[in-house]
Amino acid sequence: MSSLPGSARREPSINDVARVAGVSAQTVSRVATGKDVVRPATRDRVVRAMQQLGYRPNSAARALKAGRYRTIGVIMFSLSSYGNMRTLDAIAAEATAAGYAITLIPLAAATQSVVSGAFARLGEQAVDGIIIVIEAHVLSEAEIDVPTGMPVVVVDSSARYEVPVVDTDQAQGARLATAHLLELGHETVWHVSGPEDSYSAQRRRDSWRRTLEEAGAPVPEPIVGDWSPAAGRRAGELLLRRSDATAVFASNDQMALGLLHAFHEAGRRVPQDISVVGFDDMPEAADFWPALTTVRQHFDRVGQAALHALLEAVEGGSPRGRELVATELVVRSSSAPPPAHA
């Protein structure tokens, strides 16, 4: 790579490129910003000069002129969640297809100070808008303020904001799971819930309870877990003490896996003695023993919808309200009529 005499310690400027290419600085600027008013031969000459000098156009400066940074900020609480990672994958893929980069800030806690700090950092990094993927219930409390002046979309949270909200239809999914087990003939359905501070877990738990009440079925006390297989295994050990437990709906597939482990270890057959239904339809669910009946979440559609809603806001379109992405029940081998009806 060539360098300019005496310029080893500074970056080449637009004027340096113009001098080497034999054009004006304005022409170099037009090439750098992708405008098509430059003749192909001239454009090629400018590009060769940029490569020769190692010139890199200042994207921030171009963005200030164009009014776009072509970058989306993503604030996410918990990178360990299967659903969050699938949603992030979809956001990243859609952003790339639309010509945007993403800047990710994972959070250790969903408090006002931490969330405000993340917004401030993204503001310094010059983003066009922000997607928040934080399922913790604390985000729906009044003390969490979403700043004004920048397009924001919230994923997997409550609808208490004056910004677009995109989420899986948690209530519909839990209703499908619970109704499926009742329709098989089970007198009631036990529930292994997600954490108390999870908005999605609360929505699933409330819908499970409401579905039982509407059917006139007994409502057992839910067993609260932490989304892990270990929590499901502990819940399974508790349910083994209940001779009347013939069906259980787990709030995610990983806890359902723990349930299956506990039942197999105790010699309780699934689904002959007890039926198990999960939530998520993670890729491994079809390979559980037995294959897991579960509620499929379309995380890809949630991520796509969030990105599209944000880009509409960035480009000045009409703001969306709350958008719910439907789920579907995938019936496999882990659910069947109770022993007396088999």
List the helices and strands and how they pair.
Layout (H helix, E strand, L loop, with lengths): L13 H8 L3 H8 L7 H14 L5 H8 L4 E7 L4 H16 L3 E7 L4 H13 L4 E5 L18 E4 L9 E4 L1 H14 L6 E4 L5 H16 L8 E2 L4 H11 L7 E4 L2 H13 L9 E6 L12 E4 L2 H16 L7 E4 L2 E3 L12
Parallel strand pairs: 1-2, 1-3, 3-4, 4-5, 5-11, 6-7, 6-8, 8-9, 9-10
Antiparallel strand pairs: 10-12
Description:
- The chain has 342 residues and is an alpha/beta fold.
- It has three domains: 44 residues, 434 Repressor (Amino-terminal Domain); 125 residues, Response regulator (Rossmann fold); 142 residues, Response regulator (Rossmann fold), CATH 3.40.50.2300.
- Helix 10 links the parallel strand 8 and strand 9.
- The chain starts with 13 loop residues before the first helix and ends in a 12-residue tail after the last strand.
- The N terminus is likely disordered.
Secondary-structure arrangement, i.e. CATH architecture of the largest domain: 3-Layer(aba) Sandwich
Reading side by side through the largest sheet, how are the strands ordered?
Answer: 2-1-3-4-5-11
**Number of helices, counting only DSSP H or I runs of 4 residues or more:** 11
Could you name the CATH class of the largest domain?
Alpha Beta
Q: Look at the helices and sheets and give the structural class.
A: alpha/beta
Distance between the termini: 77 Å
Query: Taking Cα atoms only, what radius of gyration do you get, to the nearest Å?
Result: 27 Å
What is the number of beta strands? 12
Question: Could you list the spans in which at least 5 consecutive residues all have pLDDT below 50?
Answer: 1-9
Task: Work out the helicity level.
Answer: 40-55%
The CATH topology annotation of the largest domain reads as Rossmann fold
